[in-house]
Each structure stands twice: as structure tokens, then as C-alpha cells.
User: What shape does this take?
Amino acid sequence: MAENKTQPTDRPVSEFLDAVDHPVRRADGWALHDLMHDVTGQPAVMWGPSMVGFGRYHYRYASGREGDALAVGFSPRKTNLALYGLTIAPGAEELLATLGPHKRGAACLYVTKLSAVDTDVLSELVRIGYHHMTTVEHTA
Assistant: This one.
């Protein structure tokens, strides 16, 4: 079976975040780094070339495919901040309704800038998302 493309790397997170071109996106990246670290208690790790992750979980599908993935994380993209692991925990829907302007993808949450969302709600989404991904949804 093929190995996952997105794996943890040894690249320093600080090097990645400091290299983000857009100044607001760079500042938001550092703010998300601090928020997710504070909430999860986990160190930041680069996953692939552009994802900053906190904690990990092991998944195993009925097909036999299995691997590891970041529990929660983010990527400061050119047009938005992509947030991972925050949309499927019980209670997430209610919190998302009060977060502020955002869009959703299949497994991602997108915000344009942190100043437009409620960071207390975001912190709670990180807390429940991290807990869910590491203890409920997927366990080794």
C-alpha cells in the first residue's frame, strides 16, 4: 500500500512561518501557532511542506489503509488560513455557527483573517477537535 504523501518533517516551524510572504497571514500563522500550542500542549511539527500540526492520530480504514495524520493544525495559504481537525467533533457545528465568517471544505475550515473570528470559539474548536481526533475518532 502506498505511503501517505503528507508526513511529519524536520523543517523548523519558525523557518516556515517566518517565510510567509503576506504580513497579515504571517502574523495570523504565529497567532494560530501560539493558540494551538497553548490549547493542545503539543509542540508544532511541520507536516509536508506547508502544514503546521499539533499532535497526531493513527487511522485505519476498513479497506486496510492506515497511517498517521496531524490531530489539529493549519496552513497559512495565500488567500486564507486553512484549519484542520476542527469540524467533526461533537459540538463543532454549534460552535461554527458562532465563529464568524468562514467557509468549509471536505475536512477543512477556511478563514480569511483571525481578526474576523471569535478566538475564544476557535480555541474551543481546537480543544474539542484535538480531543476527538486523539481519543475518540481514531486510536492506535
Notes: Helices lie at 13-18, 23-40, 92-99, 119-136. The first helix runs from residue 13 to 18. The longest strand covers residues 66-76.
